[in-house]
Structures are given as C-alpha cells and as structure tokens.
Amino acid sequence: MQIITKSTAQAHGLARYYEGVPCAKGHDSGRYTKSDVCVGCATGRSLRYATRKKMEKLWVEVGVPADMPPEMKDALVIWLRFQATIPFIKQAIWGTDPMLTMSMGPPVPEPAFDNQVKSTP
Ligand SMILES: [Zn+2]
Q1: From ligand 1's centre to the CA of 35, what distance in Å?
Q2: By CB count within 10 A, which of 8, 62, 73, 79 is most buried?
Q3: Nearest 5 degrees, angle CA 10-CA 15-CA 19?
Q4: What's the confidence (pLDDT) of residue 92?
Q5: What is the tens place of the pLDDT at every residue in 65-97?
Q6: How far is the CA of 22 from the centre of ligand 1 (A)?
Q7: How far is the CA of 81 from the centre of ligand 1 (A)?
Q8: With a threshold of 0.85, does the pTM exceed it?
C-alpha cells in the first residue's frame, strides 16, 4: 500500500490514510482520516456487531428460552441449525436419508422381471 500521511489525506479530502505503521492489533490496513480509527479494527467491529444481531434474530426465530445465558443461546441455535442440515448431508452422501426411508415403511420391492428362459420339462 502506498504511504499517504494524514496531512496529505486531509489536504486531498481522502477518507483514509496509510503511514505504514500497523495498529496495536497488527492490522496493516490504514486509518480513517476523520477518526484515526484503524480500518481493520472498524471492519472487525462491524462484522462482530452484524453477527451478534443476526444471532439475536435467530434466538427469536428458534424460540430459545429468555433466561438462558447468551453463549448457551448461540450454542443452541448453532446446534439446531446443524441438525436441520443433517438430512441434506445424508442426501448428498447416500442419495437419500436412511431414517426417512425407514419412517416411510419397508422398501417397496422392485417389480420382478421374469427374464429367465423357462425350460419346459
Ligand atoms: Zn486494527
């Protein structure tokens, strides 16, 4: 990345500058001119916030108990969503869900084709 000092960025009206110094967390991604906030840190914070909001939406969707600790709620949502994918995984591996086949009753026998040459005594 090209070195652009903060004063140069301000003079040119640029939103970001890069002085070649990584942030305290090691991001080598430049900083916002207005706030001096590291772009990598801001992106990470934004993603964590979006993930948190998405999980909270799923808590409601799944109907997790309200008195459950947040980590347990997340774990329950992840577990339930994983379980929901199991039939699709089985479908991908075996072409069908063995449990689903069993629940539908015994397999219907293939129609018998009598293609053997009968020898009449
Ligand atoms: Zn950073």
Answers
A1: 13
A2: 73
A3: 70
A4: 84
A5: 999 999 999 999 999 999 988 888 888 888 876
A6: 7
A7: 32
A8: no
